[in-house]
Design goal:
Largest sheet: 9 strands, mixed
Strand content: 15-25%
Distance between the termini: 35 Å
Structural class: alpha/beta
Helix content: 40-55%
């Protein structure tokens, strides 16, 4: 069991400040493990698994099950019991707050809309993903197998690939239908595989609809569900008031690169390294690591591009500063015209080129090269 100290500190701080904390993340990313670690150190804690039929039977009268509880109450897989949210609002508003609630879910707040509305001002959301490089400092392994703990910690690539295959089967057969996906599992897998082939590219909904044989609106509904299930990351374009035609469609990434590689039939490091899509796969992996390092949520990340070809892989605003990131799977990155255009048009305070080499160093004024393997130590260097 890995401690995952960064996440534990963040969740504890939120529980100190809010009566309800929602811990969200894809299946098998480690939510239950973290919650039980926090519960074990809190006297009188109780954990309810809402996928357990016996627990759900006891929750036929949820007020009786929860009103007398004190300390920390963990409700795992909260998306199966959205009717609890109005009761949690009442319990959160009690004087002296005798209990705090940690809700675990495999869906976004948008999908848990009732919770977002019922608990407004009372709940803080925290998103957990798989391992980052501060937890498992092997970029090659994490890139190939992804960050989901059972895959990343498997004893070899074959074992990791076998686990991911079963993981995909369970998601498609059970979890996604429970969240509202109407497609049969073989069709859902084919759709997800099509998304894997567009990983890191500007999304063309009409092209995807034609390939799958459904309408544009149906494609958008399925895309929304996959995103709300935290299985893909959609990067929206950033717009500036510039006299240039800008890219207006989003980019889409499979959230976990191990899952991406399994969808593409790539089970080993050699298979990944020799695949023509390895560059976009590495880009998505590096992007997720930068987002984790900065602590920025999904909806605060953008990309930027113009019809003339200038682009920026990732744009974020933090503390009043404008930061840009480019991802280059090379050991010796250099500056490009596109970088200087982005620096000027977006008025960036800093542009960081994240690369696959071993060293970090300045490339030009306000442009730094940072090795992905040194991201957690070097990203703050130079401001």
């Amino acid at each position: 069991m890995m401690a995952r100290a960064r996440h534990l500190r963040a969740i504890r701080a939120l529980l100190d400040a809010f009566p309800v904390v929602g811990l969200l993340g894809p299946r098998q990313c480690g939510k239950s493990t973290l919650a039980r670690m926090i519960a074990d150190e809190t006297a009188g804690s109780v954990v309810f698994d809402l996928e357990d039929p016996a627990v759900m039977a006891a929750f036929a009268e949820p007020g009786l099950a929860l009103r007398s509880r004190t300390g920390l109450v963990v409700l795992d897989e909260i998306q199966h019991a959205p009717g609890l949210f109005p009761l949690l609002r009442v319990l959160a508003d009690r004087p002296a707050r005798p209990a705090r609630f940690l809700l675990l879910g495999s869906a976004s707040p948008e999908l848990l809309q009732q919770g977002a509305e019922s608990l407004a001002g009372r709940i803080a959301w925290y998103e957990l993903e798989g391992f980052a490089l501060d937890e498992l400092a092997d970029p090659g392994l994490l890139h190939v197998r992804g960050g989901l703990p059972p895959s990343a910690l498997a004893h070899d690539d074959a074992a990791g690939a076998l686990w991911r295959d079963q993981y995909l089967r369970n998601l498609l057969a059970r979890d996604l239908p429970q969240l509202g996906l109407k497609l049969p599992p073989p069709s859902a897998r084919r759709f997800w595989t099509m998304l894997a082939h567009t990983h890191g590219r500007v999304l063309n909904v009409s092209e995807l609809a034609r390939a799958f044989g459904i309408g544009d609106h149906a494609v958008r509904r399925v895309l929304d569900l996959f995103e709300h299930a935290l299985l893909i990351r959609t990067l929206q374009p950033w717009f500036v008031n510039a006299a240039k035609r800008q890219v207006k469609s989003p980019k889409v990434y499979v959230a976990d690169t191990g899952v991406l590689h399994s969808l593409l039939g790539l089970d080993t490091r050699d298979a990944v390294e020799s695949h023509p899509g390895v560059g976009s796969s590495w880009e998505g992996f590096a992007l997720s690591q930068v987002a984790a390092r900065l602590g920025v949520p999904r909806d605060r990340c953008w990309f930027w591009g113009t019809q003339a070809g200038a682009e920026l892989d990732l744009y974020v605003e933090m503390g009043g500063r404008r930061l840009g990131f480019e991802f280059k799977r090379t050991e010796r990155p250099s500056t490009t015209k596109s970088m200087h255009v982005a620096l000027a048009d977006l008025r960036l305070d800093r542009l960081v080129v994240v690369h696959a080499g071993l060293l970090s160093y300045p490339l030009a004024e306000r442009i730094d090269a940072i090795a992905l393997s040194r991201l957690w130590t070097d990203l703050d260097a130079g401001g």
